[in-house]
Design goal:
Layout lengths: L1 H129 L1
Length: 131
């Protein structure tokens, strides 16, 4: 009977040991799964980090290109304003020149009439003197 109690305890200890071994095996599987997941997550993090760096470089290049485009647009806007001002000045000068030409044309017509009158007067005087 004494041995029966010891044998029962031994059998119970074997069952406990078997349960512990089974639990340890499950824990090992879980640790392996978590280690695998950790490696996968670290690889994904590294890849994402590289993509982020590449995106930041692209963004920096785009910002630089945008700044250059803004400068070019500003230069073109400035040139446009200058050209519009020059066009306005030229237009005013052209209008002034046209007015002067019209005045000169009127003066020319008046002088032509005066010259023709003078020629007729000279011709009349010549005709009178010849008589």
């Amino acid at each position: 009977e004494k041995f029966a109690g010891v044998a029962a305890k031994l059998e119970e200890s074997k069952l406990d040991l078997s349960d512990m071994q089974h639990a340890n095996e499950e824990l090992r599987k879980e640790i392996l799964e978590k280690d695998t997941l950790k490696v996968e997550l670290e690889a994904a993090l590294q890849s994402t980090s590289q993509e982020l760096q590449s995106t930041q470089l692209d963004l920096s290049e785009m910002q630089h290109a945008n700044e250059e485009l803004r400068k070019e647009i500003l230069e073109k806007d400035t040139l446009k304003v200058e050209l519009e001002a020059a066009l306005e000045t030229t237009s005013q000068e052209l209008q002034s020149t046209r007015s002067k030409l019209e005045t000169m044309s009127v003066e020319k017509d008046a002088l032509t009439i005066k010259l023709e009158a003078e020629i007729r007067s000279q011709a009349d005087l010549q005709a009178y003197i010849s008589v």
